[in-house]
Every structure is written in C-alpha cells, then in structure tokens.
Known about the structure:
This protein has 24 residues and is mostly helical. 83% of the residues lie in helices and 0% in strands.
Amino acid sequence: MSPPVVEQIISVLSLLIDENEEHE
C-alpha cells in the first residue's frame, strides 16, 4: 500500500545518495 509519491521520493533519495557517494 505505497503510493507512487513514495516511490518517486525513493528514486530522488537514491540519486542524492549516489551523488553524495561520488562527491566523497
């Protein structure tokens, strides 16, 4: 029971985490 909004947020978080890892 997870709305599509939550899935989009997870996608954005994944992208942010990926960028953060690259910056380190």
